[in-house]
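Task: sequence design from structure.
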């Protein structure tokens, strides 16, 4: 018989015996063709391969500056005539530790210099610059090539025609994060709940004595900011508001009707996902959830199971987020490094799955190390939250950060029949076989099965089966004589570097004994 609901997302409820499903390093896709043999499938999340590395710290910011037709492309290491015609021209900037780099098409890093004191182009003011993991921000202006950067609560600027970073002394201690809208560079001071603006398209000039705004619609402080379309979203601890350009002397003012009763629970969790903002939210009733914008309102997209998991973390305020689009899906990636967890929401299916980097020494997952996504030179690129690596990310890459294996897990929902004992003759996976590699690990890819007879509380040993060497397309992945249980949970996992595509499972049940 068909194993219904074998394909699904992560949902671990308060009662493990009620639901204990997990989906790690796979994502779910609904098959929209009426002729498809299945209604949905599990496809592998992408891997990464290293392009460059620097030993100066951890990845903190990643930004692509569009420059089609603009003069400041000439200063780039990757001039327009050197790029394939189908690739959008741009400049790729990244912050590793306290150093600003530019990467070219091949991923080679060029370090920018600084007018600030300190070795290299280190951003001054951080007590421990080499180990700082607090995100930086980069935003560019009009065709002038001006760029505004924030790091260590300070503001910096550079012009893409040059190669030098300058500090904006007026913003010392006032630039938690930055932005750009309608010709103005923006700086949010989260400690003082103050929004500053620059002169038009001029990140060098800030009148912090007059060109600022502070919160008045609610009593909680602004702690985060995100520019979305023609609006500035200003997130407080418990409430948020939306500002727009009114054309006055100080151009930005709140939309009176746009006071939102959800603040932000993690300062760096807001991301634009397709045509909406998504963030880790909180309200004055104590709810911690993931919310998305719907115009001037919000929808809650986290499930009770996701909220249960987050509520159990020792500190959810350290969450960092990313977003990217690939193969028809838009993903929101929310990582809790201190709690070694990463949750991912897929706006296409409205399903949640988990991602993790497998640590061989501890035989456990940590939070997914690739972070700070940017789409540069026609490919997805990521930094590393634990090293100074720059990666290329793609679904055809089967290695994780640092070159490790990607372990993928699907724990199916429990099977039970009114608490009666059920006898299982066999389980067969419906997957794409015969995708083994020609040599090395993955030459004979293996699938591992574990069984739990108490709803997922305890587990038996792994049982391995081959998924077929290269070209063995008729291989059947099957386990026989699986015993009996009143509440059986099946869990399959894989780690060989092959494109694991899983479409379902079949069970043969011999009978029931009361």
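Answer:
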């Amino acid at each position: 018989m068909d194993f219904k609901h074998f394909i699904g997302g992560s949902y671990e409820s308060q009662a493990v015996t009620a639901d204990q499903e997990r989906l790690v390093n796979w994502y779910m896709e609904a098959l929209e063709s009426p002729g498809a043999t299945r209604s949905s499938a599990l496809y592998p999340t992408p891997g990464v391969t290293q392009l460059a590395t620097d030993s100066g710290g951890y990845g903190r910011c990643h930004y692509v500056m569009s420059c089609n037709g603009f003069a400041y492309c000439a200063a780039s290491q990757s001039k327009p005539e050197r790029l394939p015609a189908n690739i959008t021209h741009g400049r790729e900037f990244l912050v590793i530790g306290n150093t600003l780099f530019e990467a070219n098409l091949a991923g080679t890093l060029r370090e920018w210099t600084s007018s600030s004191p300190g070795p290299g182009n280190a951003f001054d003011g951080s007590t421990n610059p080499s180990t700082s993991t607090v995100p930086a921000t980069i935003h560019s202006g009009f065709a002038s090539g001006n760029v505004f950067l924030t790091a260590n609560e300070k503001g910096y600027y550079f012009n893409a025609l040059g190669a030098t970073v300058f500090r904006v002394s007026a913003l010392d201690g006032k630039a938690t994060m930055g932005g750009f809208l309608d010709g103005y560079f923006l700086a949010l001071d989260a400690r003082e709940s103050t929004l500053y603006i620059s002169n038009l398209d001029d990140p060098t000039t800030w009148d912090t004595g007059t060109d600022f705004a502070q919160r008045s619609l609610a009593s909680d402080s602004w702690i985060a900011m995100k520019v979305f379309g023609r609006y500035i979203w200003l997130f407080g601890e418990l409430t948020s508001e939306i500002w727009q350009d009114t054309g006055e002397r100080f151009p930005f003012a709140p939309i009176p009707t746009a006071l939102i009763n959800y603040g932000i629970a993690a300062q760096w969790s807001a991301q634009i996902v397709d045509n909406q903002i998504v963030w880790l939210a909180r309200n004055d009733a104590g709810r911690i959830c993931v919310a998305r914008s719907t115009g001037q309102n919000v929808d809650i997209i986290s499930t009770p199971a996701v909220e249960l998991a987050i509520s159990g973390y020792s500190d959810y305020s350290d969450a960092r987020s990313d977003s990217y689009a690939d193969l028809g899906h838009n993903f929101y990636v929310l990582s809790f490094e201190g709690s070694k967890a990463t949750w991912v929401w897929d706006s296409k299916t409205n399903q949640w799955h988990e991602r993790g980097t497998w640590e061989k020494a501890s035989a456990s997952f940590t939070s997914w190390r690739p972070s700070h996504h940017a789409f540069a030179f026609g490919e997805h690129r990521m930094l590393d939250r634990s090293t100074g690596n720059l990666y290329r990310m793609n679904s055809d890459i089967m290695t994780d950060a640092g070159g490790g294996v990607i372990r993928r897990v699907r724990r199916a929902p429990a099977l039970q029949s009114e608490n009666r004992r059920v006898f299982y003759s066999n389980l067969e996976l419906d997957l794409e076989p015969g995708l083994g590699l020609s040599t090395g690990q993955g030459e004979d890819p293996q699938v591992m099965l574990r069984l739990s007879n108490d709803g997922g509380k305890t587990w038996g040993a792994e049982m391995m089966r081959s998924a077929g060497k290269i070209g063995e397309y008729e291989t059947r992945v099957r386990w026989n004589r699986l015993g009996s249980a009143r509440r059986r949970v099946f869990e399959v996992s894989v780690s060989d570097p092959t494109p694991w595509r899983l479409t379902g499972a079949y069970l043969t049940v011999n009978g029931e004994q009361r």
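Residues 304-311 form the longest helix (8 residues).
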